[in-house]
Every structure is written in structure tokens, then in C-alpha cells.
Design a protein that fits this description.
By secondary structure, the protein is of the alpha+beta class. It has helices spanning 12-28, 31-35, 54-67; strands spanning 38-46, 49-52, 69-80, 84-94, 100-111, 117-129. The termini are far apart.
């Protein structure tokens, strides 16, 4: 059976570990690697986009990282319970024309007993920034 450690129920330490693993995976910008953290039938809301299934997650991320160049992400644990984790995050990226952005957001995650994410709800706002304002280098 497919598992992704640490498994719920989460403690403070394992919730922090799960968040760091997610940050590291997303910073790899490897859609296949990232998608393996989710159930086959995962359900996402990412901004106003609704995504269903691991394969759709992978396709979404492939498109995302073709558009969002020089991507760098930082996640922080906000709260946790038995099988749920809430994070705040920010990431910086550059578009094809060279404009930098910082995205701010919150995510709510729900995991199955095998540590795979079943649900991900993300609210995200983008802010254009000058290159000199970058914090995530």
C-alpha cells in the first residue's frame, strides 16, 4: 500500500516535517514528484481552478511552472489536528516578460491514513514586485 510519511495523526513535530517535505517537493518544480504526495483521486481548489485526480495535478503543475519562472516557495505551519494541516505560504516567480511577483496564500490540507493528501484548498493572491524587493532568493 502506498504511504507518504509522516502519517497522521500529526504531532507538532510531524506536522512541521510534512510542511517542510511539501516545500522541498514544490521547490523541485518536478510535477511528477509533487503529484506523488496526493491520492489518486485527490480534490483541489487552487485559486478559482478545481482539480480532480493525481494526473490532473501533474498536468496543472507542468503548466504552472512553464508560466511561473524562477519559482521559489516558503511554507509555514499555521495549525494542525489529527489528519489536517493548515499552512501559510509565499512564493516568488517571474513571468515571461521579466516581471517579478510575490504570491501570498493559505492552504488547508486533509490526509488519508497513509499520509497522502486527499484534499487541498488554496487561496492565493499575487502582488507585482520589483526584483530588488525579492526576499526568497
Amino acid at each position: 500500500m502506498e504511504q507518504k510519511h509522516p502519517l497522521p495523526p500529526f504531532t507538532f513535530e510531524t506536522a512541521v516535517q510534512k510542511v517542510q517535505l511539501a516545500e522541498d517537493a514544490w521547490n523541485s518544480q518536478d510535477p511528477e514528484k509533487v503529484s506523488l504526495a496526493y491520492t489518486i483521486d485527490t480534490v483541489w481548489r487552487n485559486r478559482s481552478t478545481f482539480i480532480n485526480g493525481r494526473r490532473a495535478v501533474q498536468e496543472f503543475l507542468e503548466t504552472k511552472w512553464k508560466k511561473e519562472l524562477n519559482y521559489k516557495l516558503k511554507k509555514e505551519l499555521w495549525a494542525y489536528t489529527d489528519n489536517r494541516i493548515a499552512v501559510r505560504f509565499e512564493y516568488e516567480w517571474q513571468d515571461q516578460q521579466g516581471q517579478w511577483f510575490r504570491a501570498y496564500g493559505n492552504e488547508n490540507w486533509e490526509f488519508n491514513e497513509n499520509g497522502l493528501m486527499e484534499k487541498r484548498y488554496a487561496s492565493i493572491n499575487d502582488l507585482p514586485i520589483d526584483e530588488s524587493e525579492r526576499r526568497l532568493v
